[in-house]
Write a structure and sequence with these properties.
The chain is mainly beta. It is 5% helix and 50% strand. The strands form four sheets. A five-stranded mixed β-sheet has the order 8-5-11-12-13, with no helix packed on it. A four-stranded antiparallel β-sheet has the order 7-6-9-10, with no helix packed on it. β12 and β13 form a beta hairpin. The N terminus is likely disordered.
Length: 171
């Protein structure tokens, strides 16, 4: 999968589309487990996220807002890619952030004051917190997509920052 910057670069080429091929690490391109062509608007930034399992792989294409957040703020978007987990509600400090986020979907952008947050997840729809994940302190100006995924030890968050860096956050 290409990073947002690479997709943005493709967007400036002669064609208004990009062909993506997802392969298992270390395998040749002709063994792609998913291929898809995306149409991109000129001058925009996009992200493509492959999620699910090899026998049910899907691609989520998203438009990115790369404008700077307001002074003292950061901007995040929640993306639900935890296979086998139904619709979730997200909270921070007991305050609702995102309601009814379905598997394979992304929230809108959330602009919040810079700092450290604990993301609380209600995975049952019963209004009770099932899981809490402590994010590291994020500085003002940060732009990130935050994914819920299933890692080796259970649910984890993965932050994908605007500069292409990632960070795994155990819950």
């Amino acid at each position: 999968i290409s990073s947002a910057a690479a997709l943005k670069g493709w967007n400036r080429m002669l064609w208004p589309w990009v062909a993506l091929a997802v392969t298992v690490a270390g395998t040749p391109l002709f063994s792609a487990v998913l291929t898809q062509t995306l149409t991109l608007a000129e001058g925009t930034a996009s992200s493509a996220i492959a999620y699910d399992t090899a026998d049910g792989l899907a691609l989520l294409a998203l438009s990115n807002d790369r404008s700077p957040p307001a002074l003292g703020n950061l901007r995040v978007r929640a993306i639900h890619t935890a296979f086998g987990v139904g619709t979730v509600d997200l909270y921070a400090g007991g305050a609702p952030l995102v309601s009814d986020l379905a598997f394979g979907a992304a929230s809108g952008f959330l602009e919040v004051p810079a700092g450290q947050y604990t993301v609380e997840i209600d995975a049952t729809g019963e209004g009770e917190i099932d899981l809490a994940c402590a994010l590291p302190s994020l500085p003002a100006g940060t732009i990130a997509d935050v994914f819920a995924t299933l890692g080796p030890s259970g649910v984890q968050l993965v932050a994908w920052f605007d500069d292409g860096a990632t960070a795994a956050i155990p819950c």
